[in-house]
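Standup notes
- DV: blocked on the single-chain target, sequence here:
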Amino acid sequence: MNNSIIAEQFSLLAKLIDLHGEDSFKAKSYASAAFTIEKLTTELSGLDHEKLFQIRGIGQSTGKKVVELLESGELKILQEYLSKTPEGVLEMMNIKGLGPKKIHVLWKEMKIDHIDQLAVACEENRIAAKKGFGQKTQEKILSSIRFQKENSGKYLFARVEGFADAFTAKLKKKFPQENFAFTGAYSRQMEIIESIDWVTTTSGEQLKTYLVNDLIKLVADRDGMLVFSAEGAILFRFYLSTKKTFFSTLFLTSSSEEFLQEWKIRYPTPPKDPVSEEKIFDEAELPFIPPFLRESKKVLDTLNTWDAGQLIQTKHIKGLIHAHSNWSDGGQSIEEMAKELIQLGFEYLVLSDHSKAAFYANGMSEERIREQHKNIDELNKKLSPFRIFKSIECDILSDGTLDYSNDVLSTFDLVITSIHSNLDMEAEKAMQRLLGAITNPYTTILGHMTGRLLLRRNGYPVDHQMIIDACAAHRVVIEINANPNRLDMDWRWISYALERGVLLSIDPDAHTLEEFHNIKYGVLVAQKGGLTPGSNLSSFTLKEFEKFLDDKRIMRGK
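- DV (later): unblocked, structure below
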């Protein structure tokens, strides 16, 4: 049980106390403890009780509950609150625009204890009429319910990857003589998937005997496909084939419908019983198109403009751009981060802590910036030839200006600009803010362009083409934020950015050492957009990166 899980338990407890309309002082105390625990750099599980109780923001009462969690794996008081809260009410806690106090009103005063009841109440305009809600809140609630329903049963690629690999290894061990290969959206590296799919030569009866139990159910058996489900888990789909048809089945099921329809028009006679997927493309006199590029039919028109072997790989990332230290809301010191990167073979770190407007993330005041820069200068002398660049993730304010004056921004080697506040915007407002940042001469990289969180919230509306054109005009780099919850800018716009000569940058937005490895997920979606190392800023060597910054300074001087 790590700090993150412990913090989640206390945060949930605070919300449930508020939801039941009980002791607000206790609720605030537990919420404060959750915040404190989340930011700790030392795991509570490794401390003795005496030291645990001495941590500021925890104290005796909360400390005892931490011990209870560590020893028993659960919190009795939390379980009591959960047991007396209807499941539908708990589900309502995931709705954007609804805090515990508002849910209390809906539940206790309006007798609404399920999302479907809430949706009906919104459609009948009863929520807007309730004191403390209003029309705008009602619209947000209804929009959030629709978003939640649309995304039900969907999962982030990164969240199921480890399970998918482990489960496949288990299947191969059980059936060593049979073939298994990923197919479908998972094999195409889609950022959101609804099922994990395999092609296999294992018989349907063998799979059913092995998989079906009290937890896993067979939900479909048709047309050579088996579908299994476990409560609260992703669907498993198996396409059944023979040894002879394995690769043709793999090709058909790993290509998108759009790609496949166009393929059948252009190449109506497929090879019989191909010995590999590559053989299918050889017969059509085409270069091999990997599954992650079999998304759009357009790829068949651009075969002469790219080489799959030249697309970006994780090994091509030379520098880690966009990472947060414990100077703001990160988990480690700058030196700890740098030493980890040196071990991993990186050449440089672009440190990008939060700016002062992000007070909730311990954003940097001008005075602390000066202190941090001194610290970086000392570390650069100590750790050479590895280099730490002075950067900031500077908030784009509501009027499109940046969080610091240009005098302060000029003290950084480069500036990443991002929107973190007032995300509920119309397109006109969002564009005004983004274009304001892009036209600032100190903006080097535009961070997570739409502010989206996959499966949690839509991004604010953005005219991607206009933003990309503006970045091209002002020579601003566009980030591919590799946090698997973001993957923003969307890969579907990479090809247009490349056409316009815009540099992209795969950045992990890391807050811990573990999150350095987010880079992988940025690379996976970047491959789908056809990105090569030469068009990716974080693939620049240290020498190339320094020249890029020098050129940027010269351009700014003009």
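- Follow-up: The chain is about 45% helix and 10% strand.
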